[in-house]
Design goal:
Elements lengths: L5 E4 L1 H14 L4 E5 L1 H5 L3 H8 L4 E4 L2 H9 L6 E3 L8 H8 L2 E4 L2 H9 L6 E7 L10 H12 L4 E8 L11 H11 L6 E4 L1 H7 L10 E4 L15 H4 L5 E13 L4 E2 L5 E2 L4 E6 L16 E4 L2 E6 L7 E4 L11 E7 L3 H4 L2 E2 L1 H7 L4 H6 L7 E3 L1
Helix pairs in contact: 1-3, 7-8
Length: about 375
């Protein structure tokens, strides 16, 4: 039989989470962000559940081609724009919209021969200091684009650095609004954190296009201040396996490489067919939450390449073959709704849910549930 580990992608959760984005921003169009192969979930696997979005946003031309091969004829936005002049040929052929964030991209457009003018999103660096024109240079860049016959509609875009934290977005909103005042075109500013924390009734933030990224996949962008239950999100991925071994520890026994875990009392542990070669974080220390037969337990010792250990004290009935949920829905989800949010596991490893999703290893079988 195959090794008992698999990842499930939950189409109903994806559709639900997209609905949450629409509920928070009812007057906006929604980009479903599917960069990094849909945050590790697989573009082809999520497409059916997310095709209710108004458009798809990503980085890679090959991923854009995959969307067109799925017969998506709506908008596709390249979030980092093109990387060399010949990329514009594929933008023309596939009717891709693309971000413009630096002068060289405008130069390439000026030299591009096309019968179909391009839809572009002009990006402002309003404080994130990654990509985009400064507020002082923004209007000049807009004027250059507006003068090109290769350019059709120009939308205006920025990205918030602190939408998930206490600093907030007011300083960036002010910079964006001041620099774009009286310029025509649709606006796109809100990522998942801004949609959840700064949009909705009475919030005041408006955006013609919002970008539903991590929230689409059931992770809270401001965890641990808020969890997915607070935002009404559902995990879109479950990583599950089974117990393949049992050990009875005596007081003083150790577990795993480096003997990092020392049993202080007699302890029964289970061995799970999952390790860092599957994408589980090696830095997750003892006590990282894990579900065994739907019961919350904690890991013990170091994570190995192919295995990890779990303290079975909370579930004395566990046996060989018991189902283990590394993150996502418990085996009893339909009855009790129990989930283990990926954010909790990530926190124990000193990282974020985004990284765990994207790190799922190719050797793990994935199917849509």
């Amino acid at each position: 039989m195959p090794r008992p580990i698999e990842a499930l992608v939950h189409a109903d959760a994806l559709a639900h989470n997209l609905g949450r984005a629409r509920a928070r921003a009812p007057d906006s169009k929604v980009w479903a962000v599917v960069k990094a192969d849909a945050y590790g979930h697989g573009i082809e696997r999520v497409f059916g559940a997310l095709r209710g979005a108004d458009g798809f946003a990503l980085l890679d031309l090959a991923e854009a081609q995959r969307l067109r091969a799925l017969d998506w004829r709506g908008p596709i936005l390249l979030l980092e724009g093109v990387f060399e002049p010949r990329d514009l040929e594929l933008c023309s052929r596939l009717n891709l919209w693309h971000v413009v964030h630096q002068e060289q991209q405008i130069d390439w457009l000026a030299s591009h021969k096309t019968h179909q003018p391009h839809r572009v999103f002009l990006k402002m660096n309003s404080g994130m200091n990654r990509l985009g024109f400064t507020p002082a240079a923004f209007r000049s860049a807009w004027a250059r684009l507006n003068a090109l016959p290769q350019v059709d509609e120009i939308s205006l875009m920025t990205h918030f650095s602190d939408a998930d934290g206490p600093r907030g977005i007011a300083h960036q909103v002010a910079a964006f609004e001041a620099a774009t005042r009286d310029l025509p075109g649709e606006r796109s500013s809100s990522n998942s954190a801004a949609v959840l924390r700064h949009m909705g009734p009475g919030a005041g933030l408006a955006s013609d296009w919002v970008r539903s990224g991590i929230m689409s996949y059931g992770s809270a962008p401001d965890f641990p201040e808020h969890d997915i239950a607070h935002w009404g999100l559902q995990p879109a991925m479950t990583l599950r396996s089974r117990l393949i071994g049992l050990q009875q520890l005596q007081r003083g026994d150790t577990v795993g490489y480096g003997s990092r875990y020392l049993a202080e009392v007699p302890t029964r542990i289970g061995i799970v067919a999952c390790g860092y070669a599957d994408g589980y974080p090696r830095l997750a220390g003892s006590g990282t939450p894990i579900l065994v037969d739907g019961v919350r337990c904690g890991t013990v010792g170091r994570v190995s390449m192919d295995m990890l250990a779990v303290d079975l004290a909370p579930v004395p009935g566990a046996r060989l073959g018991s189902e283990v949920t590394l993150w996502g829905r418990s085996p009893h989800f339909a009855q009790d709704g129990t989930v283990l949010a990926i954010d909790e596991v990530a926190q124990s490893a000193g990282t974020i849910g985004y990284e765990l999703m994207c790190a799922l290893a190719p050797r793990v079988p994935v199917r849509v549930a």
